[in-house]
Amino acid sequence: MRAKIISNGQSIAYRAEGAGSPIVLIHGWAQSADEWWTRGYGAVLATGHRVIAIDALGHGGSDRPHEPGAYAPKQSAAHVLAVMDAEDADRAGVWGYSLGALIAAEVAVGHPERASWVVCAAQGPARDEAPSQAGQRGAAAMVTSPESLAGVLGFLGADAAFIADAVVRNDPLALSAAMAGLVADYPAVAGCGVPSLFYLGDAERPYRPEELALAAEGKTTLAVMSGADHVATFNRAEDALAIVLPFIAAQESGVRA
Question: Is the pTM higher than 0.90?
C-alpha cells in the first residue's frame, strides 16, 4: 500500500505492507522507501510485522524543498511520528540506514516513548563530529546538478545501475538541502533508554574506543558486517538481516540481545 500524509505542511509518502508489530524503515540519502523491497528487506520483515517504509523528505514521492532548514533533525523525526500516527502505531521499532539512521536516532532520543527499539545501519553510536559534519557539508555543496549528483554517488561507492536511476528520479538541489539540513551532533542514543543496535561494515571504519566502551557497559549492541563498505551494509540485505533479526526477536521476547 502506498499512501501520503501532510506533516507540518509537507507531503510525506510512505509504503506499508504486512501485519503485526510495526517496524519503521528509513532509507539512506538518494534512496527511497522502495529500496527496502528492491534489496529484499521488505518481504522478509513483512512476514511477521507491519512494515512502514518512509520516503524521507526530499526523496521518492515526498515533497522536495530546496531549503536546508526544512530537513532539520527534529522536523525529520516529526515526519516519522506523523506517519506512525497515520498508521495507528503508538510504538514501533525504528531502523534507519546511513542518513536515515540519523533520523531514527533522533526519534529514539527525542521521543523514546514511541520507539520500541532502534537500529542504526552504517553508523556508530559516536561520530568524530567536526570531520563528519565538515565532510557532509562539503558533499552537500557539491550536489548542484545531475552530473555532480552522479559524481558524489560514485565517490560514495554506489554502483552504476543505482547511480543512473538515482539521477533520473531525484532532484539534486533537494538532495543537497537534505544532506546539509541533517548535519547535526549525533544524537546520544546509547543510554537513552531505548534498546539500540548499531552495525558497520569493517571496510568502512572500526569502532572507536568510546563506542566499544558503551557496548561493554551494556548501553548498546554493536555488530560488524565482514567485508562490507558503506554501500554494502545496505545492499547485502541477507547479511544485514542476519544481524538485525535476532536483535528484533530478543526485544520482542523481552530479552536483551
Answer: yes
